Backbone:
């Protein structure tokens, strides 16, 4: 499946109008199904339908299960099958009995729901304890300045369409480790975390996460579940994202552009 499609548009420039070709980021649904056993009985349940950019569907699915607290290790998933272009099924190991009620939190973490708050942050705290350890992470501002350009140089589909969100994982020396793109910012991060889970490198507690857009509560909770303590965004953070960063001791940077940025939480980790 292609990550971009060609279309014909009318391009207006002052008083002129001309036909032109354009590239659009592909947006298609993906259903995530979960298969598991309870008392010897096999159960198959549809747990999510998300609009995503095709590609890395297995990473997206396993990353989603991890950030929602359904699994703790890559080995909790026995197999992943691409049932069709728009359906992926994950079969859990027999010893894993998922707490499906945890998925209810997913319905309260979108920016449009209007009901996120302290209870949502506490729901993440219950599922995640990997941020509690003290750290001595420090990063120079001069290194942070370079990260957006590195990410942009690796945004292959964005270069053609301008329509995708991206997230990137860097080590503390500024070396780019992973990049994932998607029409949904939460999907891009699930793909990134899924890839890291498969590689056996979680928790990501000595890494920097860079977001190509804004920092929302949902992205912060997914970062927290992966153990990420430094999150930088090219765009603005939401109020709840800042609240969560403060409550969890995470460093949150916004408006990282050129040689400037704002520190909203965790300023002790930034060396000017």
Residues:
């Amino acid at each position: 499946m292609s990550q971009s499609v060609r279309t014909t548009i009318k391009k207006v420039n002052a008083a002129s109008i001309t036909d032109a070709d354009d590239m659009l980021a592909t947006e298609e649904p993906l259903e995530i199904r979960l298969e598991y056993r309870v008392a010897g009985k096999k159960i198959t349940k549809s747990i999510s339908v998300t609009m995503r950019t095709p590609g890395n569907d297995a990473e997206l699915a396993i990353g989603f299960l991890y950030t929602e607290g359904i699994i703790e290790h890559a080995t909790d998933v026995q197999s992943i099958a691409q049932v069709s272009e728009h359906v992926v099924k994950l079969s859990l190991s027999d010893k894993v009995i998922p707490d499906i009620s945890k998925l209810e939190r997913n319905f309260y973490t979108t920016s449009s729901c209007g009901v996120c708050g302290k209870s949502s942050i506490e729901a993440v705290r219950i599922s995640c304890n990997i941020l509690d350890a003290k750290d001595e992470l420090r990063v120079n501002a001069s290194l942070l300045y370079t990260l957006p350009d590195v990410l942009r140089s690796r945004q292959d589909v964005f270069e053609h369409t301008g329509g995708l969100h991206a997230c990137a994982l860097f080590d503390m020396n500024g070396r780019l480790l992973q990049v994932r793109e998607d029409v949904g910012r939460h999907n891009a991060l699930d793909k990134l975390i899924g890839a890291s889970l498969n590689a056996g490198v979680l928790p990501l507690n000595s890494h920097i996460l860079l977001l190509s857009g804004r920092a929302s509560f949902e992205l912060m909770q997914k970062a927290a579940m992966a153990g990420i303590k430094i999150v930088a965004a090219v765009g603005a953070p939401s109020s709840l994202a800042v609240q969560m960063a403060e409550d969890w001791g995470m460093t949150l940077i916004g408006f990282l552009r050129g040689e400037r940025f704002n520190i909203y939480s965790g300023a002790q980790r930034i060396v000017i």
Notes: Helices lie at 57-67, 118-127, 141-153, 156-161, 185-198, 217-225, 239-248. The radius of gyration is 19 Å.
